[in-house]
């Protein structure tokens, strides 16, 4: 028996929700592939991907099938028990990466929280209570919990919530000398995004990551890569560390891992993992069968030579057209990023106007993102069809043309 649902509209948000978000004026209600429809039936092309989450688009049959099958078996048993999907997913992640052990949780912030706690616990056990300092990059983003938001190098997110967590230092990204000056025998971890996502889609330089690896080795510190946004094929490799050839001690993944279903993972080696003994860390929902079954389907689809090669080919399509639009209309100075995580850096005349471009694109039936006020960000499905890329970029060009002629 179906229950009649009361109609809701965008105005309800302002009546019932905490006002920490400012969502768009329309409500998406259905998606298929890289197309989305709103309440009025209007169709949009999705180049936002739920902020780099919908890695296989909307309603991908492999994910719908995995979720439906598992939903009819087992939803939740808690971590008093283990479950088959979690074990299968852990095996697949270990087989595909440097890792030997996996911890499952529900969000990127939780994965980073676990990573930072593990780094401090390893240092405490091995070297004592004085080795607890974490070095992170300015303009980084690692989550919204009190610990992770303080590790993130953006004070606009961490100010106003009482005393800061101590023992955290921030240095400029891609500045190896600054990192070298900050590392000491008190450093327990260096935490970096291989590509700064929220900080403007800014890729790390290879020499910087190699230097960070060497500094950690020389100072008995752990190298943590936050691959919440860059992981699961987004860069054209399964994880961005594989693109650079620099192996971390701890890696965090979320966003694309579940293709839209909430799940996250912290990956590490066995010699480090053993420091989280029974009772030292946990999560009620982490590793639940529904999430793990979906994530297992995600990795089965993505971790193939065809899909990963396709990401690189689609990258080239996007970059060529975006650079042409940028030059023709004088709106971008640079298109940067890896794979299908792309950032268009706005020219001086358009600095601070990323939101205007977001709004103009929406009026043309295109969903995009921004990464701060000066960068327009694209994070589409990794299997977005070439015809959708062309049509979406046609819509984007129409939006840019109207803006620049206004």
From TrEMBL:
Tell me a GO cellular component.
cytoplasm
Q: Which reaction does it catalyse?
A: N(2)-acetyl-L-ornithine + 2-oxoglutarate = N-acetyl-L-glutamate 5-semialdehyde + L-glutamate
Q: Which enzyme type, at the first EC level? A: transferase
Q: Where does N(2)-acetyl-L-ornithine bind?
A: 144, 283
Swiss-Prot/TrEMBL cofactor(s): pyridoxal 5'-phosphate
Return the cofactor note field.
Answer: Binds 1 pyridoxal phosphate per subunit.
Question: What are the GO MF terms of this UniProt record?
Answer: identical protein binding; N2-acetyl-L-ornithine:2-oxoglutarate 5-aminotransferase activity; pyridoxal phosphate binding
Q: Primary place of residence?
A: cytoplasm
- Keyword annotations for this protein? Amino-acid biosynthesis, Aminotransferase, Arginine biosynthesis, Cytoplasm, Pyridoxal phosphate, Transferase
Q: Which InterPro entries match?
A: Ac/SucOrn_transaminase_bac (IPR017652), AcOrn/SuccOrn_fam (IPR004636), Aminotrans_3 (IPR005814), Aminotrans_3_PPA_site (IPR049704), Class-III_PLP-dep_AT (IPR050103), PyrdxlP-dep_Trfase (IPR015424), PyrdxlP-dep_Trfase_major (IPR015421), PyrdxlP-dep_Trfase_small (IPR015422)
Record-annotated residues binding pyridoxal 5'-phosphate?
108-109, 141, 226-229, 284
Q: Name one GO biological process term.
A: L-arginine biosynthetic process
The record's listing under PROSITE patterns reads: AA_TRANSFER_CLASS_3
Q: Where in the cell is it found?
A: Cytoplasm
Q: What is its EC number?
A: 2.6.1.11
Its pathway is: Amino-acid biosynthesis; L-arginine biosynthesis; N(2)-acetyl-L-ornithine from L-glutamate: step 4/4
Q: Which residues carry this modification: N6-(pyridoxal phosphate)lysine?
A: 255
**What Pfam family is a match for this entry?**
Aminotran_3
Family assignment from sequence similarity: Belongs to the class-III pyridoxal-phosphate-dependent aminotransferase family. ArgD subfamily.
Describe the protein's quaternary organization and the partners it interacts with.
Homodimer.
Task: Identify the PANTHER family for this entry.
Answer: AMINOTRANSFERASE CLASS III (PTHR11986), SUCCINYLORNITHINE TRANSAMINASE (PTHR11986:SF113)
Give the miscellaneous note: May also have succinyldiaminopimelate aminotransferase activity, thus carrying out the corresponding step in lysine biosynthesis.
Q: What is this protein called?
A: Acetylornithine aminotransferase
User: Species name for this entry?
Assistant: Pseudomonas spelaei
Record gene name: astC
